[in-house]
Amino acid sequence: MDQVNLPLGLWLVQTLAATFLITGFVSFERYLWRQATLVTQQLRATYRVLQWLLPLGVALLFEYGTYQGFMESNMLANIGVAMIVLPLFDEAVTNWGYAWRGLGVVVIWGLQRGSTLTRNWPLLVLLLVNLLLIRRTHHMLRHTPHWIFVITVSMVFSFWLDVTWAPFTAQLAWQAAGMYLVICTFVALFWARTHRKFLLDQQMQALIDYDDVVNDTTVAQDRAVAASLFRGAQVHHEPLTVAAFDVDHFKQFNQAYGHMAGNATLMAVTQTLRQVLDQTQVAYQLNHLGGEEFSLLLPKVGLAQAITVVNQCLTQVRTTAFPVEHTTAQVTLSAGVTTLHEQDQSVDSLYKRADDSLYISKIHGHDVLTVEGQTTTYDRDVDVNQLAYFAQPIEGVNAQGSVHWAAELLLRRYDSQSDQWRLPARFDIAVDKQIVLISQALTVLNVQRVNVNLTLAQFSDIETAKSLVSYMHSGRGPQQLTIEITDVPSVTVMRRVSALYREAGILIYIDDVGSDNSYELVQKLLPYVNGVKFAIQNLRRQESSARIHERIQFWLDIAQRQEISFILEGLEFPDEVTWAQHLGIQYFQGYYFGKPQLPLTA
What we know:
Blueprint: H1 8-36, H2 41-68, H3 73-85, H4 95-113, H5 121-136, H6 138-141, H7 145-160, H8 170-209, H9 216-235, E1 240-247, H10 250-257, H11 259-280, E2 285-290, E3 293-299, H12 303-318, E4 322-324, E5 327-329, E6 333-339, H13 347-363, E7 369-371, E8 374-375, E9 387-398, E10 401-415, E11 420-422, H14 431-442, E12 449-454, H15 456-460, H16 462-473, E13 480-485, H17 491-503, E14 507-510, H18 519-522, E15 531-535, H19 545-562, E16 565-569, H20 574-583, E17 587-589
Parallel strand pairs: 6-7, 10-12, 12-13, 13-14, 14-15, 15-16, 16-17
Antiparallel strand pairs: 1-3, 1-6, 2-3, 4-5, 7-8, 9-10, 9-17, 10-11
Protein name: Signal transduction diguanylate cyclase
InterPro entries: Cyclic-di-GMP_PDE-like, EAL_dom, EAL_sf, GGDEF_dom, Nucleotide_cyclase, Rev_trsase/Diguanyl_cyclase
Pfam family, one: GGDEF
């Protein structure tokens, strides 16, 4: 049947219909490709053949419809051409697969030319040039819409210039060309958006799985390499230096920004360390041990040179602004360093000494380098005017609802350059400055129960305890002050310090039980504390729900036997609160109830 020039409205309707049909087709074609990677080798060949035959077969059906004058030949012809041309941009197609698809394109082109093939040979040359160009650049074309548009314009001339067969007039040819441009442009934009989402999903999955890459296999491989370096250093009487790194206050970082941001920052810290080490041009082995811990082996590097290298690592990390939630954040590292001793029997001796030095660094307040047990960097001077306590609610929940029971005070530093509050580089501020910040927060808080975190060095310091006791006796303090500790002291220190705090009615809670603090580590300390906090967020990424519930029940039972309080923190979802209430848990903390905020805006 004869075709007439389409009215604009009808052309738009046909263009939209063809565009969405083609988009669905290319999505299905992509689905077949992904399925082919998931099935057995025998079925894979079937999927590949189906993927090659499907575009050509469907395109030929639409071309047949065009010849027979079904519906609107304008739309059918465009659908047929698009179905055979667009799969050419697939970046994963093999040479044989591309040759088959290219042959299909030439066949469709020939059917459109009919008896005019001879005089249209320049257009055939243009078509072949396009096919060659697509193949040579297919790895970059699919996800760059502007280049697909350029190739599409060239294809338009190949297919729609001088179309003389019966169903088409010159005007219809131009309408067909316009429709084809719209179809291909929309699909190109759809591909680009889908690709961006795919890359984003990959990045998100990488962040989620980052800690999972540290498994028994990788640890065993790293240990094997370390043992080999140790034996070589002994045989050839060469130096071997080991450093242990730990990202300071990483628990607080995760509380402030979330675990996804925490994993992203760990990845960025790893990259920063590698960049520094590459610039030093020394041989090294950097291992991520899981969580915020790293180890560094420096074969044939003496202690003096290793100290320089490690200091460069600490400085670079300290001065780097890591991207977090549309802003930036800063973190610091503490490090312990040791070198090969003549009496060492295995590389484990070096690892232990490095860990012991790292522990000393963290006792001294973090952002510290300790070499063979001697601390080389330590500075407590902090401007209190740049600091403030943010408050996160601790809720008491019962059958009647929730009550704002207490608030945990979390230290933040004001960055004037970005006009934002960030985590401070260090948390071990002098106790007199800490008291000033507590008093400032109390003036605007609507609760008089506050929890404050102390580092191990602060908690172990008798003068700090005496100052807090005096503060509470002065009547200027809160009705109830609770000290939270994550790094636990020895039993001797706990017995001596807890007696001072108990006399002033100051409570002591051990944080991160069940994750950073195991039962074996804190068992002998429990008689001296008033409560424990279980951080569910520390386990959510690597443990199943059933395993987390089992641990929570274990620590709840311990708290009940010891007759001490139990706070479940890190709650983000209502079903977690409901489940915990069924266990009889009364106190909760987490983003579900509120994020840390300045008390003025809380």
